[in-house]
Amino acid sequence: MRRSTTSDARKKDTREKIELGGLIVKAGLRYEKRALLLGLLIDAAARLKGDAQERSRLAALGAEAFGERDD
Fold first, then answer.
1. By the 8 A CB rule, do 57 and 63 touch?
2. Contacts of 31 (CB under 8 A, 6+ apart)
3. Which pTM does this prediction carry?
4. What residues does each domain of the chain span?
5. Which InterPro entries does the record associate with it (predicted)?
């Protein structure tokens, strides 16, 4: 039983990482250096803290990229 639970957790973790990597590709950043990507993410995380307006702006931008609209 424990082995199955561990296996399921690893599969879920792997799937999540693949999906997150897909976001990098979708954003057009596939060929950027990892250090730059990490810097972008760290900077974005800092900007989002306590800034609901920036969070909403970026969420709308992302939703548009996914083809989702909030009409």
1. no
2. none
3. 0.73
4. 1-31, 32-70
5. Conjugal_tfr_TraD_a-type
